Amino acid sequence: MAKICDFCGQKIGLLSHHLDFEDGLMGEKCLIKYKMGTKHSIAPGAKEYAKCHTVQSFKDFVSDGDSFKDIQQNFLTDKEKDKLVKKEKLEAQRGELRPNKWYLLFSLVCIFLGTSLILITPISNIVIKQMTRTALHTTVNRTSKSKASFNFKKVKSIDTISVVKGFFNQARVIGIISIPAIKLKLPIYQGINNVNLVKGAGTMKPNQKMGKRNYTLAGHHMTNPNILFSPLQNIKTGDTIYLINKSKKVYSYRVTTKKIISKYQTSYIKDVGQKKMITLITCASGKPGEARRIMVRGILN
């Protein structure tokens, strides 16, 4: 005959846990409900409690808002007490060894951010080099439909966002500048917007023509001494600057002047009568906010 739980009236399975009270049984579902056991075991002290209590007395006990957990310690056998003490010690030891989850999460975030900051500059430099190489192998465009900007105030230091924008924005190459003595070779773009300057040199005035008057170019000085206009720090008087236009005509200039100027000395980009010259401008260092500029000037050979 199937056993019935005297608390809920449901049948108790043959393999289910149950608790024997003085005058009745508690099935597995009620064991879990009243926190006197689980699907796998009966709670310590529950058997001793049930031996000396009736079904009704327990119902009255829980109806008052009490819980078996509140009195469990009073019904533990010596063996159960020993097990409980050992369990508490083991959990305490595990707790000491287990780091706080928020501390662990914070540590992982710090490690991720630190690694990102360390790697972001080298990765950006690699991308800049690749964009420059790709642009140098691009056919020089005869016309450019995009509007060129010559507003110096809008030029910002290169950051991750500008590198990403430069990667996805295919600006039109209008020429090439090459200075063999310092191993500099870059595409030339019309204007000095941030997309252009992240991968090459930009013209500083509208309607400039190579070999005519003062041809001015600007470029970024990076912490990496080998990319963009950074090599200009090593240029010397007498070095040769080559420009290649859209018709692949080559213009050569001999460097006559190299000096440090203020960023406010913009007169160097102006034409000097009909003199045929070139002027290159870059920051004096790769530090953000650098107020000085390297100015290199050469005359047409």
TrEMBL record:
Spans through the membrane: 102-123
MF (Gene Ontology): cysteine-type peptidase activity
SUPFAM superfamilies, per the entry: Sortase (SSF63817)
Xref: InterPro entries: Sortase (IPR005754), Sortase_A (IPR042007), Sortase_dom-sf (IPR023365)
Range of residues in the leader sequence: none
Pfam family, any one: Sortase
Gene3D superfamilies (alphabetical): Sortase
Residue stretches in coiled coil: none
Active site, UniProt feature: H220, C283
GO biological process, one term: proteolysis
Keywords for the protein's UniProt record, in alphabetical order: Hydrolase, Membrane, Protease, Thiol protease, Transmembrane, Transmembrane helix
Top-rank taxon, per record: Bacteria
NCBIfam families registered for this protein in UniProt: sortase_fam
Name of the protein: Sortase
Organism: Lactobacillus acetotolerans
